[in-house]
Design goal:
InterPro entries: Cro/C1-type_HTH, Lambda_DNA-bd_dom_sf. Pfam families: HTH_3 (PF01381). One of its GO terms (molecular function) is DNA binding. The chain is 52% helix and 8% strand. It is mostly helical. It has a two-stranded antiparallel ribbon with strand order 1-2.
């Protein structure tokens, strides 16, 4: 499987939010813990709606949670 062209800081943000679990974040966003784990690991690209919901939980703009990798391959 090819690496997704973006990274995220979800794990760090969860830690800074009182060590929020993947399950807690999933419940607040409306997805499963497994989905959060896959997004964190870069194995799954969230929908735009889910990405915005994740950012909203942390009170951050989307670009503070997800970063687009702009490199030549």
């Amino acid at each position: 499987m090819a690496k997704l062209p973006f990274t995220n800081d979800i794990r760090t943000l969860r830690f800074l939010a009182g060590e929020m679990t993947q399950g807690d974040l999933g419940d607040r966003v409306g997805v499963t813990r497994q989905t959060i784990a896959a997004i964190e690991q870069g194995k799954y690209s969230p929908s735009l709606e889910v990405a915005f919901r994740i950012a909203l939980v942390f009170g951050k703009p989307l670009e503070a949670v997800f970063q687009w990798e702009t490199g030549s391959d």
